[in-house]
């Protein structure tokens, strides 16, 4: 093989490797997922605030026009990236599902936080509309409490939001209604 053919062969190999590497990098960049990958929504339902019975305000009407599903609400309350209510709130009804020695059930239903009030009996303390407002925006429900509970159905007014998540609410209106349906089962 002549020197010219060798140089040409090496040049073609280098060009191919460079092109293949660029294509691979481009494919990986396209494949990279957003930080908001769990179904966060840009859509926020409109609602009307009215006078509450136990707290100042409530959202009396369903955000979807229908009741949520309590079993699905449990799923969102224990979802480690979206609801994750049990990270801060203890709920004995959920904790009872964590079977000793069963790592899967412990991971899903165990390990409750104690930095927020327990949710046991919450349906006896608040009306359905008040529970809905608390899930939508605990800061509106308890303006003087300086709460760290996230607003699950607002999409603006937050600090230090990842750029992929700006303009997104954590829960859809349906998920809010599902969580409210589950909270309504928590009676003393």
3D structure, described in words:
By secondary structure, the chain is mainly alpha-helical. The protein has one domain (50-183): Orthogonal Bundle (Cytochrome Bc1 Complex, Chain D, domain 2). Helix content is 41%, strand content 2%. It contains 8 helices and 2 strands. It has helices spanning 3-31, 70-78, 92-95, 103-109, 122-125, 128-136, 138-141, 173-183; strands at 50-51, 57-58. The chain has a two-stranded antiparallel sheet. A hairpin with a 5-residue loop joins strand 1 and strand 2 (57-58). Helix 6 crosses helix 8 (173-183). The longest helix has 29 residues, at 3-31. The radius of gyration is 25 Å and the shape is globular.
CATH topology: Cytochrome Bc1 Complex, Chain D, domain 2
Compute the average pLDDT: 84
Low-pLDDT runs:
15-19, 24-31
Strand order of the largest sheet: 1-2
Strand content: under 5%
């Amino acid at each position: 093989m002549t020197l010219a053919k060798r140089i040409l062969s090496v040049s073609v190999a280098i060009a191919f490797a460079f092109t293949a590497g660029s294509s691979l990098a481009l494919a990986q960049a396209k494949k990279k997922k957003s930080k908001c990958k769990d179904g966060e929504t840009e859509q926020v339902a409109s609602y009307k605030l009215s006078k509450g019975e136990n707290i100042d305000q409530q959202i009396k009407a369903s955000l979807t026009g229908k009741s949520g599903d309590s079993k699905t609400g449990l799923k969102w309350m224990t979802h480690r990236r979206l609801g994750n209510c049990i990270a801060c709130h203890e709920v004995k009804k959920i904790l009872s599902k964590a079977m000793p020695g069963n790592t899967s059930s412990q991971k899903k239903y165990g390990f409750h936080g104690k930095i927020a009030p327990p949710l046991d009996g919450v349906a006896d303390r608040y009306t359905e509309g008040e529970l809905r407002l608390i899930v939508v925006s605990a800061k509106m429900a308890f303006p003087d409490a300086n709460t760290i509970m996230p607003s699950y159905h607002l999409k603006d007014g937050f600090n230090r939001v990842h750029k992929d998540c700006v303009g997104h609410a954590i829960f859809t209106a349906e998920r809010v209604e599902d969580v409210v349906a589950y909270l309504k089962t928590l009676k003393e």
